[in-house]
Amino acid sequence: MSLDIGVRAADGSSVGSLTLDAGHFGIEPNVSVLHQVVTAQLAAARAGTQSTKTRAEVSGGGKKPFKQKGTGRARQGSERAPHFSGGGVALGPKPRSYKQRTPRKMISLAMRSALSDRQAEGRVAVVSDWGFTAPSTKAARAALAAVGVSGRVLVVLSRDDEEAYKSFRNLTEIQVILRGELNAYDILCNHWIVFTTATVPGHVDGDTAVTVGATRSPAAGPAAEILPEGTLPPGVQPDDALPDVAEAVGPGAVEAISASDSGSSGPSAPDDTVVPDDTAVPDDTALADSAADAALSEAPGEAVLTDATDPLLIAAAADGDPADDDAEEAQ
User: Fold this and answer.
1) DSSP label at 75?
2) Are 317 and 296 within 8 A, CB to CB?
3) Helices 311-319 and 284-298 sit at what angle, rounded to 10 degrees?
4) pTM
5) Fewer CB within 10 Å, N side or C side of the chain?
6) H-type helices in the chain, by residue range?
7) Which of 150, 176, 208 is the endpoint of a domain?
8) Are 202 and 21 in contact (CB under 8 A)?
9) Domain residues for 294?
10) For residue 239, is it within any domain?
11) Are residues 104 and 33 in contact, defined by beta-carbon separation less than 8 angstroms?
């Protein structure tokens, strides 16, 4: 299936050709997905406002129509039961939503399947620009005849084609739709689909990719430029062009900043202590153990410590036994 299509002007003259996107116009139509998506779309269009009254909502029926026994008839408790004329409706419809959850990938696949089906039948036309300067239904009918389309026609426009929209909307067999509203159901309901070069799905016009259901906002601006390695963005100075900190604030301020970063209040004296390589430097644990041993050797009493590094036990051993101190004072 060829994806090359001729582009015509509004007067029917040929102005070039266009290669359609294979992802939108060249796939194998998925009929089951088309059926499911179209069914869900039609279901979501239902208002769902139908309603009936149950026997509890119908007025009347509060009195037993006749006595329970002795009449020969079947016993009844209310005249508003569903089997009575004027009674309530059993299992009747109530207002509800008919919407079905359809994945976005299925919706996209259904739309691309419908586009591919119309392209396979040769019922896709592309116009460069309608060129309406003022709304004119007569000019719109003549333009469609010049392009060579007939029957039910789906005209896909952009938001800037206001004159074209006003020109086509009065024609009974013409359906006008924006490119962001394109869907599988409207494609299947029409015999022809007429695009402009700015609304063809998947077509790249300049630096703007036309995608169904998504438009690029002009406020977003151009895409970010990727700079070569080692190149600075415009308006950014290199490091060597920045003023020296020492020249800007003075050497005294630089020393103060360095002292505050190191955590000291002033310049620190250089450490000239040289430790030989064969000298073992004691760590904090060894110093704590030696201090605890010295405290135990000097402290009176016969206290037995389970942990020599416990500060509370060291303090208790250094103070001695309070009972011995009382005995010495009594003597």
Assistant:
1) P
2) yes
3) 20
4) 0.57
5) C
6) 22-25, 31-44, 104-120, 137-147, 162-168, 184-188, 245-249, 251-262, 284-298, 311-319, 322-330
7) 208
8) yes
9) 290-326
10) no
11) no
